[in-house]
Amino acid sequence: MIYYFDNAATTPLTSTVISAMTEVMADNYGNPSSIHRLGRQANKTLRECRQTIAELLKVKERSIIFTSGGTEGNNTAIQGYALANQDKGKHLITTSIEHHSVLKTMSYLEERFGFEVTYLSPQNGQITAQEVKQALREDTILVSMMAANNETGDLLPIQEVGQVLKEHRAAFHVDAVQLVGKALVEPEELGIDFLSASAHKFHGPKGVGFLYANSLHFDPLLHGGDQEDQRRASTENLISIVGMCQALKDTYSHLESNSKHITKLHDSFLESLEGDNYYLNKSKQSLPHVINIGFPACQNSILLTRLDLAGFAISTGSACTAGTVEPSHVLEAYYGKNAKELSESIRISFSEQNTVDEVHLLVKEIKKIIGG
Ligand code: PLP
User: Fold this and answer.
1) Torsions phi, psi of 347, nearest 5?
2) How much distance in Å is there from the Cα of 196 to the middle of ligand 1?
3) Residue 65 is inside which H or E element, if any?
4) Which tens digits make up the pLDDT trace of 52-81?
């Protein structure tokens, strides 16, 4: 028996998603660009998926580009926009707590193309729109900020940054991989130009996502066929796109009840730990589905290994290489290099599939390990 508490890393497919994908696998195998009947059928399904996702996000169909996931969405928006617009300026702004698919794209642009990047760090535990405002320059062409952090669940001030950028020509990219499926996101309303999402974070398949892109010009990452309105070449991954569309429809129809349930899991986890020695790594506003928590009594690598042996799937949130936990760049941004929090903290992340009983079992096991 596995108790799965690593939903910020990825989520399991639901049965409705599996059925929708299986149906396409069996019968709808045409290439959406082929003109014969099977091709037209596949193309119709593709159009329906694009329409559904566009309606859920309240945007135009043409602004939804299917991708291979969050990493591709982030690379396309940042690299594609920066390279296509470098004649207007070579300054970019982001934060030091972004996912590596943003941070490494930024350093690629710095090292290979001479861009200058300002990395905003948390001040008193928060990154604010005021910091963005102060960092803006005449040659700033893009601001890239995540909607919610994958390690802490912290929400970033996307709405306020959208307001600030109304007065500046810089484009706004939001990595919304951890927010889509947890709360309503309306890019147009928020003044967002590019928004990346990934299906496997909301019970869809891995290796598929979408990028919302308004009418701003950017260079595609993949060159080749004319798919996705010439903005992303390659035959569309229809099976996964259908799975993603089903998963998004399902989460949107349960957003409120899921959020209530997950808040209950979050609260009962913390209530059961009352009296134990722990601290939370989070800012004032964060999503309830992630708890980043430190236990001074136990090193995180030992705690995770012992929890794994007891059947609990949990992670630190930072990358693991060859089974070793790497220090988290996010916690480093909050506490500084070599801070004790880096080796004491773990990330527990819930989905609506978790139950309160599972949470109690998890707390019992943690208490056993830390000696509480
Ligand atoms: N951005 C954030 C905030 C993430 O949490 C992740 C995945 O963990 C990604 C981007 C990358 O998404 P994908 O795995 O679909 O490439």
Assistant:
1) -115, 125
2) 9
3) strand 64-67
4) 999 999 999 999 999 999 999 999 999 999
In this structure, the residues whose C-beta lies within 6 A of any atom of ligand 1 are 69-71, 74, 99, 101, 146, 150, 175, 177-178, 198, 209
What pLDDT, on the 0 to 100 scale, is given for residue 65? 98
Residues 13-22 have a mean pLDDT of 98
Task: Quote the CA–CA distance of 296 and 341 in Å, as a whole number.
Answer: 8
**What pTM, to 2 d.p., does this model score?**
0.97
* Best mutation site among 98, 154, 178, 182 for ligand 1 pocket (most ligand atoms within 8 Å of CB): 178
Cα(102) to ligand 1 centroid in Å equals: 9
Q: Report DSSP state, residue 236.
A: -
Ligand 1 centroid – CA 98 distance (Å): 10
Token pair recorded at residue 178? 């951890």
How many Cβ atoms from other residues are within 10 Å of residue 285's Cβ?
A: 12
Token pair belonging to 13: 């497919």
Residue type (1 letter), 277: N
Query: Cβ contacts of residue 220 below 8 Å, gap of 6+?
Result: 76, 80, 230, 231, 232, 233
298 among known catalytic residues: no
List, for residues 100-148, the tens digit of each pLDDT value.
Answer: 999 999 999 999 999 999 999 998 889 999 999 999 999 999 999 999 9
pLDDT digits (tens, 9 = 90+) for 252-298: 999 999 999 999 999 999 999 998 999 999 998 999 999 999 999 99
Nearest to 178 by CA among 293, 325, 76, 330: 330
For a pLDDT cut of 90, what percent of the chain falls above it?
94
- CA-CA distance, 261 to 253, in Å (whole number)? 14
How far apart (Å, rounded) are the C-alpha atoms in residues 214 and 194?
A: 7
Buried b (16+ CB within 10 A) or exposed e, 249-270: bbbbeeeeebbebbebbbeebe
Predicted pLDDT at 262:
98
Tell me which residue of 188, 179, 195 sits closest to 81, measured CA to CA: 195
CB 345 within 8 A of CB 331: yes
**Furthest CA-CA distance within the chain:** 67
What three-state secondary structure class fits 320? strand
Q: Which of 49, 245, 298, 320 is catalytic?
A: 320
